[in-house]
Design a protein that fits this description.
Number of strands: 21
Distance between the termini: 103 Å
Radius of gyration: 50 Å
Structural class: alpha+beta
Length: 435
Amino acid sequence: MYNFRTIEAAGAAPTIARPAEALVLPPRAAPRLSQRIETRPSARPLDLIVDLGREIGSVDWLRGAATCALLCYSAWTLSPGARALPAGFAVPEAAIDSAESRALAIAPLALGGGTGRRMVPSDAAQPLAQAPERPTVSLVVTLGEADGLARLLQRSGVSAGEAAEVAAMIGAHLPIEQIRPGTVFNLMLGRRADTADPRPLETLTFRARLDLRLTIVRAGAQLVLEPTAIAIDETPLRIQGRVGASLYRSARAAGAPARVVEAYIRAIATQVNVGQIGAEDLFDIVVENRRAASGESESGRLLFAGLSRAGGREIRLMQWSVAGGEAQWFEASGVGRETAGLTQPVPGRITSGFGYRTHPILGYRRFHRGLDIGAGHGTPILATTDGVVARAGWGGGYGNVVELRHGGGLATRYGHMSRIAVAGGQRVRQGQVIG
């Protein structure tokens, strides 16, 4: 058995000790209960902020009171004092100075005030019976859509008779219809005899074509037309590059015009499915290009369409002839064979082929007379080959439908379209967007 006893020391809390047999300590380590433990108080930190309302008369209070008195004395000795500062008195201004001050202020601007002494009448400033007119006026005007040359000149201040004369002079040199909207005209109008009369035309200069500049100048009482021919370089422009993420965007970034890229894609679509063109394939475009000696240039029709496929054959197409106003593409190798056949209408995988299949809704085997191609919403749908639109509209369970007749008993029908881009009776080419 174990016996427990309680040992209480002065100033110590009672504790429960273990049995006596377990409290045997070495002689040197055994403490004496009668021994006193003396401690010295630690140094008190210096308090910089003293509360003068507590411990009045103590050492800290006296130190705080002395500090407060010193701060108050310093503030009193350094203050400027309460003496009044001398101030000047406003001196009355003369009438002319007052008028000038009001004119240079901000408030008279809102009240329509004058400009001070510069408005004061003097011998140097005399009223004029009639204001002088500018000897010449220079204008830069632009021909707009559905606008006429004569109307443009009249709006610029030229008289109706002179505007008609200028239009007739230009029309005798080239058809007015060939002047494109957006053409810039530089005009200079001369001095007129009366302010109520229109100003006479002195000079008129504009770029009629890329290779022609027309200038009309006044020689005495007559207007003379002076054409200026501009040298043109008609070397075709070749554009090459890598397809990358998008054939259209890559060709546009390389400098090909938008309509040329569209013609290139239509030509290539006669040989290969556009959706199967890889990112590492290389496109090759040759287009008509005319560059003037002054630096301006304009592009024409597509002349050559090439595509080098990575690990595949090269496609080289040339616009060999034009039949019925539409381009016909042939192999550039000189075989002379016109390309024909069907191309896939949209890029994507075939989800259901032609033939017998289990109907996805009815659940039994049924003959499927078409091809189901999976494509995203908004994907352009292309004509598989040349044809005439026999039907374009709602087709019941097929949704929006376009039917093309290709001749020789061949027809194609395109269903489940989100939008229709052709009309009935319209003739379409292979690769043209129909919906």
